[in-house]
Specification:
Distance between the termini: 44 Å
Shape: elongated
Radius of gyration: 17 Å
Mean pLDDT: 85
Oligomer: single chain
CATH topology: Helix Hairpins
CATH architecture: Orthogonal Bundle
Order of helices and strands: HHEE
Strand order of the largest sheet: 1-2
Structural class: mainly alpha
Strand content: under 5%
Helix content: 55-70%
Length: 90
């Protein structure tokens, strides 16, 4: 996958913002769907795509937890911190 002006494909995934990771995932899927790449390149794309999916999912889960905490605070309910792994933090 070619690098873009915004974020090169070799940027560590954990440093990508959600929108950047999602855009890269869409480019990766597009390249895989187009086909024609050697097997090794297809495997690299698939591996990076899987990592991008995991990263996006983690960011969405974290955002959902933050929203729940904000809603709880706004409604006067005592919020309990819950980590992205589901563990309750006192």
């Amino acid at each position: 996958m070619a690098a873009t002006a915004d974020k090169p494909a070799d940027t560590p995934i954990d440093q990508l913002a959600f929108d950047d990771a999602l855009a890269e995932l869409q480019r990766t899927v597009g390249e895989l769907e187009a086909g024609g790449q050697p097997l090794e390149r297809a495997l690299e794309l698939h591996e990076r795509g899987a990592a991008l999916i995991e990263h996006c999912s983690r960011l969405l889960t974290d955002a959902e937890l933050r929203m729940k905490q904000l809603v709880a605070r706004a409604s006067g309910v005592e919020a309990v911190d819950v980590g992205s792994d589901g563990a309750v933090e006192a």
